[in-house]
């Protein structure tokens, strides 16, 4: 209803006034006026208007006789001070007016607004105000001259009703408040109600299920411009108020401390907050009160007009709609949850598990899929009964929940089978270690219903992204691995070479050689850095394959296919050629560091692999001293002497070796002492467990000590946080790789780093 003082009319520039404090010009009596002046004053009186001049800098004001009378100020008793007039204004309008008068306004001299003046009985009168500002040389207002005219009560009421109707229309049609979350919608409702009603406090309360307590869902405080919730009042403390709410559609209270319906609220609620008047409209459903919309006035008593009462009743009807909509949404959410929840164990079901896998795939987060099948569980049901069998299933679900790592999503996959998605696991050895530990713990005796029994299980697993980029594929592969455990009561990880019927595998096998000989493969380089300085001292070459149909194919998958299809030699030599080109590129840009490539264990058992590498180095003019070959411990399980002889031959040319994924393989100290290696790379499984796992800290310390004793460099893999970096530095680790230190990128990215 009120218009901010910056006027709606086009700005007009007027003459700048100069000068000091201006004295008040006392009015001459009406008898001394000429005919023209008397005519003007009569016109002002008839239209309930008057003139003013406000000397802003001096805090003084001149008022016409008519305006003095309208404002209830006698000419003799008026001291000419603006503060005397402002004391009768509504506090919000007074603050707005003072802000306007002290703000520079170079292009704003004409103004129009409306002001509320409050009488002794808290009756509110509205005045339309318009005039011109005078500015000083700094464009700061120094005085305002204009006319004030009282608005007729009918006009005020009509405007107020239009504002209320517009507000309701905006909430429902523009903001679509019924589509918002319930708490957000209630906040919009209370804030709009406070503004439309010019009320200090507007709130929505809801009765609890016992109908013995009102709980505040949202309270808007106009002065502080903030929302609160959670306050509660009990029927036992305020029985008259609760009784009034139950029996009345609305409670209109001019003086709440004395009204019999609300006076019991005075000491503990009204008086501390300065509340004098209340307008409550109950929220009703099925003829019963379920809550209340409450408008509270702070200050002198306030009379509530019929249109205001009707408006708050409309707000209560809107709140009813919001509660009903919120309940329907909650019911739909409960039905949605129940459709994705196992009723017996409370775990997510098969449908929800598939959604979890799809979410992990979208987030590109490596994870392990586990299918856990209880062995011969039918015997438990047949011998002990289905009731006790159900108790066993619940107990085993609780045990699994405790066993599996934090962040795991555990599900009831159906019948006597569970499933789990374990984020952060992408290495086969880590998956098998977790599965074996789970099997051992699950075999521990279980006491259920007075019966002690042991339940065995089998586990089949697959890895994302190594084994597939689709939830259906990963589940199928985990199920194939589970099938392979029948009769052994153990665990298996999906092995692509055993899956001879995978359409994806056949397509990739068909396209792999063409990709190796073409441009489908790319090679990125991840920096190896000094932890203390961040200086790049080397980089590891990492092959990537973007398939035209399947998209990005994980290295674990295409390397396994290359090994199976006797293409690993060609793939390795192609990566070596690309690495040599990158080394020359880095040299030209002023960065001279050795580069490393990963060597498949299958290459170590190819009698011609050493010659092939030596020939490639010569053809690409890459100094042997600038190449490091990364091998894993399991390369020495079979025929270690043959592998060591070939490594010795390459070492003689200057090629260096590092032992990759140290700590999770199978080499003995005898093999380790014989390997011609110059570096150990601690597997990221242990590095990333430094912060929370004492065993990981012990393993990393041992690896660092072992490297020092054997004269080997030690590189920590998988450094992804600053806290991990600091822990490694404190342990004496000098070199590391990981996303914190640098992502795989082009040679140019290494130079720019």
The CATH architecture of the largest domain = Alpha-Beta Barrel
The DSSP helix count reads: 25
Fold-level CATH name of the largest domain: TIM Barrel
Largest sheet, in brief, is: 8 strands, mixed, barrel
Query: Helices and strands: which structural class?
Result: alpha+beta
User: How many beta strands in the DSSP annotation?
Assistant: 28
CATH superfamily descriptor of the largest domain = EAL domain
Number of domains: 4
Outline the secondary-structure elements.
Blueprint: H1 35-46, E1 49-55, E2 60-63, H2 65-70, H3 82-86, H4 91-101, E3 110-118, E4 124-135, E5 141-150, H5 153-174, H6 182-197, E6 201-207, E7 213-221, E8 226-228, E9 232-234, H7 239-247, E10 250-253, H8 266-273, E11 275-285, E12 288-298, H9 306-339, H10 350-362, E13 367-374, H11 378-384, H12 386-403, E14 409-414, E15 417-423, H13 428-442, E16 446-448, E17 451-453, E18 457-464, H14 471-483, E19 491-493, H15 503-517, E20 521-530, E21 536-547, E22 551-553, H16 555-564, H17 568-588, E23 595-598, H18 601-604, H19 609-619, E24 627-632, H20 640-653, E25 656-662, H21 669-674, E26 679-682, H22 684-687, H23 694-710, E27 713-716, H24 722-731, E28 735-736, H25 747-752
Parallel strand pairs: 18-19, 21-23, 23-24, 24-25, 25-26, 26-27, 27-28
Antiparallel strand pairs: 1-2, 1-5, 3-4, 4-5, 6-7, 6-12, 7-8, 7-9, 10-11, 11-12, 13-15, 13-18, 14-15, 16-17, 20-21, 20-28, 21-22
């Amino acid at each position: 209803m009120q218009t901010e003082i910056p006027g709606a009319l086009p700005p007009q520039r007027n003459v700048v006034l100069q000068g000091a404090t201006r004295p008040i010009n006392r009015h001459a009596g009406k008898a001394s006026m000429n005919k023209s002046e008397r005519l003007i004053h009569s016109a002002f009186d008839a239209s309930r208007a008057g003139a003013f001049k406000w000397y802003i800098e001096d805090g003084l004001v001149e008022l016409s006789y008519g305006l003095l009378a309208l404002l209830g100020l006698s000419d003799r008793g008026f001291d000419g001070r603006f503060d005397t007039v402002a004391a009768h204004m509504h506090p919000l309008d007074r603050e707005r007016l003072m802000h306007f008068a002290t703000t520079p306004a170079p292009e704003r001299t004409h103004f129009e607004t409306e002001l509320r003046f409050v009488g002794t009985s808290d009756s509110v009168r509205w005045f339309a105000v318009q005039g011109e500002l005078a500015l000083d040389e700094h464009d700061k207002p120094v005085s305002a001259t204009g006319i004030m005219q009282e608005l007729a009560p009918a006009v005020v009421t009509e405007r107020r009703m239009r504002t209320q109707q517009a507000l309701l229309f905006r909430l429902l049609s523009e903001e679509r408040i019924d589509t918002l979350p319930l708490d957000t919608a209630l906040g919009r409702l209370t804030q709009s109600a406070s503004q439309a009603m010019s009320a200090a406090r507007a709130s929505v309360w809801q009765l609890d299920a016992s109908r013995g307590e009102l709980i505040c869902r949202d309270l808007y405080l106009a002065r502080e411009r903030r929302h609160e919730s959670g306050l509660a009042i009990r029927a036992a403390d305020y029985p008259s108020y609760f009784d009034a709410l139950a029996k009345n559609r609305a409670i209109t209270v001019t003086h709440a401390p004395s009204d019999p319906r609300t006076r019991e609220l005075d000491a503990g609620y009204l008086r501390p907050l300065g509340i004098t008047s209340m307008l409550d409209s109950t929220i009703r459903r099925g003829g019963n009160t379920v809550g209340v919309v409450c408008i509270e006035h702070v200050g002198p008593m306030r009379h509530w007009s019929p249109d205001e009462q009707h408006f708050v009743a409309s707000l209560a009807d809107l709140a009813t709609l919001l509660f009903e909509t919120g309940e329907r949404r909650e019911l739909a959410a409960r039905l949605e949850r129940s459709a994705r929840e196992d009723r017996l164990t409370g775990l997510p079901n098969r449908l929800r598990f598939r959604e979890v896998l799809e979410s992990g795939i979208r987030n590109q987060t490596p994870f392990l899929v586990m299918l856990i099948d209880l062995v011969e569980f039918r015997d438990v049901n047949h011998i002990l009964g289905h009731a006790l069998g159900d108790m066993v299933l619940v107990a085993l679900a609780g045990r699994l929940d405790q066993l599996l790592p934090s962040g795991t999503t555990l599900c009831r996959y159906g019948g006597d089978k569970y499933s789990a998605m374990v984020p952060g696991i992408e290495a086969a050895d880590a998956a098998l270690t977790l599965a074996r530990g789970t099997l051992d713990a699950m075999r521990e005796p279980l006491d259920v219903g007075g019966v002690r029994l042991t339940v065995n299980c089998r586990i089949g697993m697959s890895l994302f992204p190594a084994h597939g980029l689709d939830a259906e594929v990963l589940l199928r592969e985990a199920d194939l691995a589970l099938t392979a455990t029948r009769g052994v009561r153990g665990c298996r990880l999906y092995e692509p070479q055993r899956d001879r019927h995978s359409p994806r595998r056949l397509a990739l096998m068909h396209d792999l050689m063409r990709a190796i000989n073409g441009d489908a493969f790319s090679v990125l380089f991840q920096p190896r850095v000094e932890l203390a300085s961040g200086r790049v001292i080397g980089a590891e070459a990492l092959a990537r394959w973007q398939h035209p149909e399947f998209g990005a194919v994980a290295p674990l998958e295409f390397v396994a296919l290359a090994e199976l299809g006797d293409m690993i030699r060609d793939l390795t030599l192609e990566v070596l050629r690309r690495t040599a080109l990158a080394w020359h590129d880095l040299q030209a840009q002023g960065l001279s560091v050795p580069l490393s490539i990963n060597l498949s264990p299958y290459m170590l058992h190819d009698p011609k692999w050493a010659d092939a590498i030596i020939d490639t180095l010569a053809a690409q003019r890459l100094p042997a001293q600038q190449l490091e070959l990364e091998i894993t411990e399991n390369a020495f399980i079979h025929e270690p002497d043959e592998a060591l002889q070939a490594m010795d031959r390459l070492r003689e040319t200057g090629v260096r070796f590092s032992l990759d994924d140290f700590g999770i393989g199978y080499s003995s100290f005898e093999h380790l002492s014989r390997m011609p290696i110059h570096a150990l790379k601690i597997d990221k499984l242990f590095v990333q467990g430094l912060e929370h796992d004492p065993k990981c800290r012990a393993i990393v310390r041992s690896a660092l000590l072992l490297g020092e004793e054997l004269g080997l460099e030690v590189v920590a893999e998988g450094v992804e946080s600053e806290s991990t970096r600091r822990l490694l530095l404190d342990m004496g680790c000098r070199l590391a790789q990981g996303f914190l230190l640098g992502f795989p990128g082009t040679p140019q990215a290494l130079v720019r780093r």
